[in-house]
Every structure is written in structure tokens, then in C-alpha cells.
Amino acid sequence: MNLFEKGETTSWFRAISDNIRDEINKLTNAEICNTDLGDLAEYYFAKYQIEEIQIFTENITKELTETKIQRYNQFYRPGYSEFGSQYHMIDGYKITFTIPFDGDKDLLDLRPSTFYMQSFPVDRVIAPTDDDYGKIIFSLEYAKSELQRTENSNEIVQKGFQREIDTYFKTIETINKEVRNYNSGLQNIVEKYLEARLQKANDYLQMRERLELPLKINANAPNTKPIVLKKTKKKKEVSFPNRKEPEKNYEISDAHYENIKSIISLACISMEKTARTFNKLLEEELRDVILSNLNSHYQGTASGETFNKVGKTDIYIPFENKAAYIAECKVWHGSKKFVEAIDQLCGYTTWRETKTSLIIFNKENKDFSSLVDSIDAVLKTMERCKNLIRLEHNQWQGIFSKELASKDTLIINVMIYDLYIKE
């Protein structure tokens, strides 16, 4: 067999890039919208990174066996039997070299962009495994007389091997340089295809939102469980026999509330990891990204910028034309605006919405830790805030009075995410 003759490196690299594109394009909207882009990029980079061929020259071994060598008869003349046959067999030695290597065996089949005009015969190639290195088996043959008549037989064999194998090793090094160039650009290739797929998913989900098309449950959505809002019955005290149908309660369960928060958190963490893309988006556009993620996970639609009681709310999840969950998305513009956002959220809610969220994005403050501390201090001093719990470094949850003088309360989950980028 011959090395470096079954294909070309440029075509091979192009085919891999096409495979990456095709595989990413097959991701569902839920998978691309609700899986961290950084994790996806790391996955595809690890999957499609090519391992260079590494030759262990210091560990090359050789073995000697007796053999018969076919040699051309220089006295041969066609039609003259007295001069013998065209070829004759002589006693000889076969020196077999075992060259250990590691890396992608397929590279040994490829011709690089610059190459030698020659063939590269080997006996066989054994691919590396998890337990052992690969092996290139290469052999040379000598007549017995060539090696027996000199005391420098080892030197002759070694020089012959080095002379023959030199272009093999140089070709491998050329291939490795091209592999390094490919690997250095692989991250950009993966990110380009992921961002294109994410944009396509967002466009699709936003169009469905505009057309008011309900989304079905995706039972295979990653990271979180699909939500199906279930209604519970709220009994009214009435006297028999004037019994009335029980009133419906549209409040979401604690499990659903945790699931919604988890979906939002995953979406916002993904934005943080690609902050340069999302920093330039307006509040409404950031909200739309969150909406697309919510709509990937549960049946029905999460609507944005919809009237609800007083003013508008950024996100609400409707259930039988009633809001069961609402949230506000804001860009941080100081503590005063933050308190106003809390008051605004309290003003939107009715008795049905007792579990809500306030999502804050930082786009201008360099010191995110100080900003987080500021929010913590404001929440602890708010008169309407009761039983505040800090869930994570950037997330709080508390019970808030809807009105300062009222006993009606709601739960607000406050999250802040850092989209600041250096100039």
C-alpha cells in the first residue's frame, strides 16, 4: 500500500467543516436556544478537532528475517534461453521497521497542498487505540552478499532507511502544519455556524409570536422540563343547595415557577458568555430572546409587551386569557430606576399573579460585583420587601407587599446579568 494518495487535505478539511454545519443545522430550536452556546462550541470543537500525527523516532524498532529477493537478470536476452530468464531469485534479508505513531490515522491517506512527486510504499499501517500507539510497518530488502561482505552492515541499513523514510516524515510534517492551521480556525467556524443557527431559531420563534401560533410541548427540550400550566380549584363558601361552580385559580405551582426561572437563567447566562453580541440589544430585543427560550419549553405562548391591569408588562404567560406569570426586563440605570421597576411590577399584578420575576441587565458598569452589592443593599432596605433570600451571587427572591398598606403580597425573583464589554 502507499501513503498520501487517497485524498487531499484541503478537500478533507472542507468536508469536516460541512459536517459541522450540517450537524449544527439539525439542532432543534429548543436545543440551540436553551443550551449554553459556550458549552455547544466546546463540544463541537472537541469533537471535530484533528489530532496531528506524532512520530516517535526514538522508539523505532527493526527486525531481520531471511527472504528471497527477485532481481533482474542483466544478461537476459529475449528469445535466447542460454542467457536465462528475465528475473531470478537470490537469497536475501528483509529488515522490517516498526514506526510507532499517535494521532489521526486518516491523515496518512491524504496528500498535502505541497508534496513530493513520488510514491510512498509501506507494508501496512495499524491505527492507534486507547491502549497502544499506532504502527507504520516499513521494510527494506538486501541481498545477503551486500550485507555479509562488510562489517558496516548496520550503518548501511540505517542510512538506507533514513534516506528512504526522510520524505515520508517531511510529508507528515507538512500535513501537521495544515492541521494546525485548521484547528486554529475551528473555533471561529463552530461559533459562526452556531450563531447562524441561533439567529434562524430566534427569527422563527419571533415570527410564530407575531402570527400568534401556539407552540406545542417539546418533551425533549434540554436542561429543563417542559411546562404545562395546570389550573387548580378555589372553593367558595356557599350554602347548600345554591351551589356554584368553583372559581378557577390560575396561580402557577412552585415547580413551574422554578422551571420558568431556570429557563430564563440559562438564556441569560448564554447571553453573558456572548456579551459582545447582546450588549447592543435594546430591552425589548433582550426580552424577545428570553421569550423565544420560554416558548421552546411549554405549550401556549409567552407574550411580550402586553397590557395587563395597569400599563404594560414585558413578559406574561397566559392561561385561558388570564395571566399566570409576569416578568419585567430592565437595563440597569441606577438604584432609583431599580426601585421604580419593583414598584412597577407590583402595580401590574392581580390576585392571580403571585410569582413574578425582575430581570436586570448590566451594560455600562465595569464593576459588576459592586453593582450586585448595591442591589443587595437596596432590597434589604425596601419597606415593601419581606423575607428576602439571596439564592445566588446574582439572584434574590423575596415576598413583597403589593401596596405598602396592603396585606396582599407577591413573590419577586430578582436576577441580574452582566453584558458589559470593554471598549
Features:
7-stranded mixed beta sheet; 2 domains; 26% strand; single chain; 423 residues; 5-stranded antiparallel beta sheet; 16 strands; rod-shaped; 10 helices; alpha+beta
When the domains are counted, the total is: 2
Proportion in helices:
25-40%
Mean pLDDT: 82
SSE order, one letter for each helix or strand:
EHHHEEEEEEHHEEHHHEEEHEHEEE
How would you describe this structure to a colleague?
The chain has 423 residues and is α+β, with helices and mostly antiparallel strands. It folds into 2 domains: 7-192, no CATH class; 214-418, no CATH class. The chain is 39% helix and 26% strand. It has 10 helices and 16 strands. The chain has helices spanning 9-25, 29-34, 37-48, 144-148, 153-210, 254-273, 275-278, 283-295, 335-348, 368-381, and strands at residues 7-8, 54-55, 61-72, 87-102, 110-111, 124-126, 134-143, 232-234, 247-249, 303-307, 312-319, 322-331, 355-362, 385-392, 395-401, 409-418. The strands form 4 sheets. A 7-stranded mixed beta sheet has the order 10-11-12-13-16-15-14, with helices on both faces. α3 runs antiparallel to α5 and α6 (254-273) packs across α8.
